[in-house]
Design brief:
It holds the Pfam family SsgA. It is found in: Cell septum. The protein is of the alpha+beta class. The chain has four helices and seven strands, in the order E-E-E-E-H-E-E-E-H-H-H. It starts with 8 loop residues before the first strand and ends in a 6-residue tail after the last helix.
Length: 145
């Protein structure tokens, strides 16, 4: 049986900035990823010495965070300015094992989001979901069933 074509994807490395425990500025790269077959989510992957750590963030949450405070619980975002006066989005992550407050340049996030909208325009996400296949996978059905 032929494999279905791979879903279109968008990937972009974005430099994030935060303060370490000693109050020193630290910059690191995180990979932002988007897949048409998972149209509501953006995956952020932090590349750290102990292994990659990934977080799913709603694409709509990232969009809202460009211009206004958004989110609650594990992920919160809000617009701001960095020390050099550049527009940034603050990303505040919380988990049982700790927290991370970092910021990304707004222009970099906007470029990434613009690229995702070419793949799946806003409001078209539901058309990308194959609910029958999703239910089948959850229930353990095989392709032949």
């Amino acid at each position: 049986m032929a494999q279905p074509p791979a879903a279109p994807t968008v990937s972009q490395d974005i430099t994030l900035h935060c303060l370490d425990d000693g109050g020193q500025h630290v910059a690191f790269v995180a990979s932002f990823g988007y897949r048409a077959d998972d149209p509501y989510a953006v995956w952020l992957t932090f590349h750290i010495p102990g292994g990659d750590v990934s977080w799913a963030v709603a694409r709509s949450l990232l969009l809202k965070g460009l211009t206004e405070p958004s989110g609650d619980g594990d992920i919160r975002l809000w617009p701001g300015l960095d020390d050099e006066g550049h527009a940034v989005v603050v990303l505040d992550f919380h988990s049982p094992s700790g927290s991370l407050r970092t910021q990304a340049r707004t222009v970099a996030l906007r470029v990434f989001l613009d690229r995702t909208w070419v793949v799946v325009p806003p409001g078209e996400e539901g058309k990308q979901l194959d609910l029958e296949r999703l239910v089948g996978a959850l229930l353990g059905w095989s392709e032949a069933e």
